[in-house]
Every structure is written in C-alpha cells, then in structure tokens.
Amino acid sequence: MNTDYTTIEVTPLSRSIGAELSGVDIAAGICAKQFAEIQRAFIDHSVIFFRDQDLSPEQHIEFARCWGEINVNRFFQPVESHPLIAEVRKEPDQRSNIGSVWHTDHSYDQIPAMGSILYARAVPEVGGDTMYSSMYAAYESLSDGMKKMLHGLRAEHSSRHVFGEQAYVGRDLADINGRLGNTAAATQDAHHPVVIRHPFSGRPALYVNEDFTVKFEGWSKEESQPLLDYLYQHARQNEFTCRFKWRVGSMAIWDNRATHHYALNDYHGDLRLMHRITIEGEALTAAA
Ligand code: SIN
User: Fold this and answer.
1) Percent of the chain with pLDDT over 90
2) How many angstroms separate the CA atoms of 97 and 244, rounded?
3) Which atom of ligand 1 is the closest one to the Cα of 261?
4) Any catalytic annotation for residue 74?
5) Rounded to the nearest whole angstrom, what is the distance from the C-alpha of residue 105 to the centroid of ligand 1?
6) What is the pLDDT of residue 227?
7) CB 193 within 8 A of CB 285
8) Is residue 94 within 8 Å of 263, Cβ to Cβ?
9) Which of 8, 80, 113, 253 is most buried, most CB within 10 Å of its CB?
C-alpha cells in the first residue's frame, strides 16, 4: 500500500478497513492533486472519513459530482429543496432507524452504485455510530475450498422484500412515515457474481449481503440460506470492521463493492439527521 501522501494525512482506523483523512477543507475547494490522493486513500481503505466540514447542500452536491454521476435513491425521502440528496433521518420519537441490517447499498440494481457520501447534520451526543466491514478481508480469510466453490456462484439480489409493500406488513407505519416510501418502485432484481473483481483495485471481494441477497442462482432459498448466513456472520467479525463515531460536520465516503455497513440504533430520544448522496457505479464482473 502506497502511503506517501503529500496533500493529506491518512490515519487508518483498523488493519482491515477505514481511514480518517485530515488536511482537507471541501468547502474551500480541492485541487486535482489532492483529489487524486483522496481517491487513492479511498481505494486503499474502502471507506474514508473527514471531520469538521462545513458544507451547504450545494457544496455537498458539487463535491459528489467529482466522484461520478449522482444516483437518486428511489425509496428514501429526498431533501425537499435538494432532491439529489437523500435524508437518513430518525426523529426523537421514532424507534426504527435506516440501515440497521448489515448491507451494501443498491446491490438490487444490475449496475449497483459505486458508493455513498454521507454527511452528518445532526447527531446524538452518544450513539448512532456506523460500522463498516471489509469484504476483501472477509473473502481472503475463507478457506481455499470455500473460495473455490464461491467463485463458481452467482447470487440474486432484490429490492422487493426491503422496500416493497411486503416490507411494511406488521410494521408501525407511523414510525416509518416521512422517511421511506415509493413502495411501487421496488421492482428491482439483479444477479451478480458472489466473488467480484473490484473495478478499481482488481482485488477479489465477497459480494452478498444480508439485506438484499435472496439466494444463489440455481439454488432454492432453503438451500442458500445456511451458506448465506455463514458468510454474513463471517464477514462481520470484529477484525474485519471499523466503527465511526459521528460529529456534526463529519463525512464518510464508502465503496459499496468492498464494504458492508451497519447503522447502530442505540440513541432513542435523540435526533440524527444525515444527508446522503449516492454515486453511480459499473456492472460487476467475477473475480478470476
Ligand atoms: C445507510 O445505510 O446508508 C445509513 C448509514 C448511517 O446512517 O450511518
């Protein structure tokens, strides 16, 4: 891993994943050299974090456009004045949060999003951290026999059971109201290799997740579930993870093809409001 950065400081959060970057003031503008180093840190660490950024929604959008085309989430409540930004909100009187199942965003799309840029606008004093897990580390630590079997597999992913009508059965609708919706748009089914070749790094990464993966292609759900459950548990071992404590003005940028994430729901009674912009990705290919 090349660590000789000249325009930023990069402090890893764990051996497997995550780094905090300093020396960056997004609102003041970023030169091409600094942006190239930020991108290198992103590829090396899979999720990067910034502190103390003071950004308007316009500046957030402008920065996101440096990373690629913006992908507007179909199901999250958009920021009213800036529909390119999705709200990840939990009010003090709400119980459920968004993102409290380990997942990677948009794997239900045939061309899944590259990543997201999450910016903290209101956070509880304690709680509301986000955990990230490395799907490179998860893959690399599997046995040769398991790797060999997984290389031959593809998996089906869907948005239907998470964002469609069926997802709302038995739930407290008042609690969800104003945050998630558009259930009729939850029609996406996609098939991806179970071990992908990362589009930037070329490294193999495990690509199944608890929220959106339905089953292995050609297998029944009953046959798939035990192996999927094993892989989910395996992928979230402590040594493959990092944990980020938010402050107002903190920002995370994660790579959906190399990470899973999980938003802790341990702050009932407090407001947490994040602005999320998601960036388009590319079709995924199987690792060799
Ligand atoms: C998400 O899953 O995109 C939200 C993560 C978070 O709120 O920390």
Assistant:
1) 91
2) 17
3) 2
4) no
5) 9
6) 98
7) yes
8) no
9) 253
CB neighbourhood size of 53 (10 A): 18
Going by the DSSP 8-state scheme, the letter that residue 166 receives in this structure is G
Domains belonging to the chain, first-starting first, are 9-286 (3.60.130.10)
274 lines ligand 1 (CB under 6 A): yes
The upper half-sphere exposure of residue 127, i.e. CA atoms within 13 Å in the direction of its Cβ, equals 14
261 included as an active-site residue: yes
Q: Answer yes or no: are the C-beta atoms of 191 and 176 closer than 8 Å.
A: no
115 lines ligand 1 (CB under 6 A): no
| 93 Cβ contact partners less than 8 Å away, ≥ 6 residues apart | none
Angstrom distance (rounded) from CA 89 to CA 79:
10
| Statement: residue 2 has pLDDT above 80 | no
Residue spans of alpha helices (H) in the chain: 32-45, 57-67, 135-140, 144-151, 160-163, 173-176, 221-235
Tokens representing residue 178 in the block: 């104003």
DSSP 32-73: HHHHHHHHHHHHHHSEEEE-S----HHHHHHHHHHHS-EE--
- Using the structure block, give the residue that is written with the tokens 């944990």: 243
